[in-house]
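quick q for whoever's on today - can somebody do inverse folding on this one?? i tried earlier but teh output was garbage lol. tokens:
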């Protein structure tokens, strides 16, 4: 358990951080990690190791590889493999403020901010983990896979499945070298751009093979790094059809809205690039944020009056609007469709004690004492308190407590959503708003406020989910807690190292609008723009009556959005309005605002083929292989990107470009006209 989990945690953490700096964020897929552990040889598992290396392997692992070890490894590795939020802050400070907190401050901020949410999760576990209503639907396929892998190992079926996994894994590993390196045109084959290589509108609508190029309508993407579940948490192969259709409907509206705004020059859209995460002067020059700040990075009103307020690209503004609406839509959707059930559950919960059958069985294990969680809270708060002062954040001590109070308030609300419908709205923008209102004029302080007001919510949800996975698979709670904490710490350390390496070697590219097909600073840029806009300029930019003053009201519009669908469903129950998942529909209104967009059409076709055709007409195959197929494709792609990044992609300093040829042209890989 220790050997595999630490090894995989390191692999996942490095990979997760590299992916953060890619044109389209790719997440390290959990099913892949899960399948990978099954495939790495262990003692009582593969006969050849039993005979040749007996003593070594017996020392490494004295017993059979069982489901509990397997779950523990998965939890540690997947915890380590997401990029920590604090990394966005350090990268922003480094790239845009020329401030570099020293390694000790950086690492303690990381560990503090990543662990601080676990205390809240621990305190709320008797409500959000133990009872039966806290289902965590996204754990179901995982629990099933664990079960399938550890039952009847010797069966012929099992061998066939492993062979299937490996064939797909190797095939995609080899294939990915083409779209990623040798022939980038395969990332987005656009018939339209091939036919007309001179039209700017063709680039905007049909281009999408390069970062921030265009909307990628109807372009055929043959790169699994973008088509796979990496493109977001929604995988074409395993997300239910109805959810995905809401997603595609939202995407279509997004395309229309982006083009309409640009064509009608709303918000001066034509002065700025079509897709960009940066802030601009009205004349289209990149906004110089240091020119409106004092040396201590607080807002200087006089300088602002000289320079003028910054502008967003219209697409980026629409993205903000969709993100704001979606918080409201998620909460209202939840209340409309699930409120009665939840209310009953809460009432039941209050009178009776927990008689969840899984929980009853877990009683043989010692639970974690609340003192542990309290200790975590005290320790991490001390770390946070020390580092907000030593890192020059400008966040006062009361700001830290206010942020934590917000987080604590949101955790039960969002936790209930997550536990019951498996969907947790991202409240980052709401916390940024609150921070801007409480601590105006300080962009860096706003980033730290968001770090402590939003990140604990994410982290506590992940601990709650993993404790529940532990309850399903009967992993002792102390083990779950322990592997999760260690995974977090390993992740934080490696995130920091990789961030430093990438910033040093790819600085120029990360600062540019379009980046390359391997590296892109779009996540940092977007983070930085938000911090300036909310942190420094909340009042002049977002207060009622100002230029973007309508954005906060979108929260209320979002609250109203699910209501018509609900009413329509009550009136016409046969039309399937209950299948419209309004939060996703709204969230997708901004989906094309950044990155490589060519993958959507291919995802759509794949969804129809897999979730509709295969599921309906080849149900047996679908049940046995679909999830495994997704895991193998994600896995082969992840390993390829890892090797590629360090071999020729510049992860270790030097980029070795592939020579240009027909499928690796200068300019945009899909032959659309280059606009930036
Ligand atoms: C745009 O405006 C800014 C601020 O007024 C100025 O510094 C910059 O030089 C201008 N750029 C161009 C291309 O005129």
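ok took a stab at it. sequence:
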């Amino acid at each position: 358990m220790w050997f595999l989990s630490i090894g995989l945690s390191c692999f996942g953490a490095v990979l997760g951080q590299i992916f953060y700096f890619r044109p389209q964020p790719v997440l390290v897929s959990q099913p892949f990690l899960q399948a990978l552990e099954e495939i790495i040889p262990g003692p009582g598992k593969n006969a050849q190791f039993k005979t040749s290396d007996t003593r070594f392997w017996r020392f490494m692992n004295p017993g059979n590889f069982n489901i509990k070890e397997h779950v523990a490894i998965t939890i540690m590795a997947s915890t380590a493999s997401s990029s920590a939020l604090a990394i966005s802050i350090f990268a922003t400070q480094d790239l845009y403020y020329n401030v570099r907190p020293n390694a000790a401050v950086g690492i303690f901020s990381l560990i503090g901010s990543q662990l601080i949410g676990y205390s809240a999760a621990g305190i709320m576990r008797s409500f959000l983990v133990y009872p039966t209503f806290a289902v965590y639907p996204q754990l179901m396929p995982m629990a099933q896979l664990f079960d399938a892998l550890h039952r009847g190992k010797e069966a012929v079926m099992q061998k066939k499945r492993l062979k299937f996994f490996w064939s797909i894994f190797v095939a995609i590993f080899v294939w990915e070298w083409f779209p990623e390196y040798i022939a980038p045109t395969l990332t987005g084959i656009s018939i339209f751009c091939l036919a007309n290589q001179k039209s700017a509108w063709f680039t905007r609508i049909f281009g999408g093979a390069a970062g921030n190029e265009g909307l990628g309508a109807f372009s055929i993407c043959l790169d699994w790094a973008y088509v796979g579940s990496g493109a977001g948490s929604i995988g074409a192969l395993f997300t239910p059809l109805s959810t995905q259709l809401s997603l595609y409907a939202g995407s279509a509206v997004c395309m229309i809205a982006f083009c309409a705004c640009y064509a009608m020059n709303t918000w001066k859209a034509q002065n700025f690039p079509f897709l960009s995460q940066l802030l601009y002067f009205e004349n289209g020059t990149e906004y110089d944020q240091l020119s409106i700040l004092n040396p201590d990075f607080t807002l200087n009103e006089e300088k602002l009056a000289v320079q003028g307020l910054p502008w967003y690209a219209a697409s980026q503004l629409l993205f903000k609007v969709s993100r704001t609406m979606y918080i409201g839509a998620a909460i209202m959707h939840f209340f409309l469709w699930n409120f009665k059930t939840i209310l009953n559950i809460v009432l039941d919960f209050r009178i009776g004690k927990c008689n969840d059958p899984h929980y009853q069985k877990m009683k043989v294990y010692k639970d974690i004492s609340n003192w542990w969680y309290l200790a975590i809270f005290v320790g991490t708060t001390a770390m946070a308190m020390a580092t907000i002062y030593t890192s020059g954040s400008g966040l006062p001590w009361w700001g830290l407590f206010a942020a934590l109070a917000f987080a604590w308030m949101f955790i039960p609300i969002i936790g209930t959503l997550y536990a019951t419908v498996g969907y947790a709205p991202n409240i980052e923008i709401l916390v940024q708003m609150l921070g801007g209102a409480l601590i105006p004029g300080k962009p860096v302080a706003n980033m730290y406020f968001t770090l402590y007001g939003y990140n604990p919510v994410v982290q506590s949800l992940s601990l709650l989910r993993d404790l529940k996975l532990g309850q399903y698979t009967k992993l002792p709670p102390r083990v779950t807690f322990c592997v999760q904490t260690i995974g977090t710490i390993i992740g934080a350390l490696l995130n920091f190292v990789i961030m430093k390496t990438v910033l040093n070697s790819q600085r120029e590219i990360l600062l540019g609008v379009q980046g390359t097909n391997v590296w892109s600073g779009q996540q940092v840029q977007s983070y930085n723009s938000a911090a300036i806009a909310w942190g420094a300029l909340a009042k002049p930019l977002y207060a009622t009556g100002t230029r973007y003053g309508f954005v906060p009201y979108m929260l209320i519009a979002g609250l109203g959005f699910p209501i018509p669908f609900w009413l329509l469903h009550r009136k016409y129950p046969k039309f399937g309005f209950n299948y419209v998942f309004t939060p996703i529909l709204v969230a997708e209104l901004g989906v094309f605002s950044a990155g490589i967009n060519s993958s959507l059409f291919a995802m759509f076709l794949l969804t129809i083929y897999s979730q509709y055709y295969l599921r309906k007409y080849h149900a047996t195959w679908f049940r046995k292989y679909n999830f495994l197929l997704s895991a193998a494709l994600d896995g082969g792609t992840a390993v390829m990107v890892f090797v590629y990044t360090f071999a020729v992609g510049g992860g270790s300093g030097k980029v070795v470009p592939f020579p240009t040829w027909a499928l690796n042209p200068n300019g945009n890989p899909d032959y659309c006209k280059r606009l930036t």
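fwiw Confidence is low (pLDDT under 50) at residues 43-52. also The two ends are 50 Å apart (CA to CA). so keep that in mind when u check it
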